[in-house]
Amino acid sequence: MTLWLSLMVFTHQQIREDQQFLYGFATAAERDLFRGLISVSGIGATSAVALIDTLGFEDLVAAIATSNINALTKTPGVGKKTAERLVLELKSKLDQWRLTPGGSISSALAVPTEILAELEVTLAALGYTKAEIEQAISLLSQDNQMLKNPNVEEWLKKAIAYLST
Q1: Cβ contacts of 55 within 8 Å, gap of 6 or more
Q2: For residue 3, is it within any domain?
Q3: Which of 15, 68, 75, 108 is the most exposed place for a label (fewest CB within 10 A)?
Q4: Residues 89, 116: one domain?
Q5: 0.70 exceeded by pTM
């Protein structure tokens, strides 16, 4: 019996005078975020990877979107000035990604951060795992009607209904 496993890796290649680097990411959104991070003056590939590894994709995006300098400075090598520059240069780009229909940045970015935070906290308190929560948010963020709905209770009802099936 032969079992085939399919895996998709999203890559970013960086070529320097005498070296080549290939960075791999599980999602296109992570790769796009990495590219956005390295576009900021003073942030190299090592710092970008450290930011993504330290905070995780969702928390890093939320920290930039909400100007949470303290969260960003938890990453080794990222000081207050670098964190402020990250927020200054990437916050508007994140807003553009969020508003681009079918943009390659994660659809979770389209969910307003206050709703996203409330969903995560409430669903975690109800005992759902991080993977289950991310799956529910991903599904809900594909619904254009939900994206226009500012009522967090509606988001919770839909998420619980999805997770209960």
Answers
A1: 63, 71, 72, 74, 75
A2: no
A3: 15
A4: no
A5: no
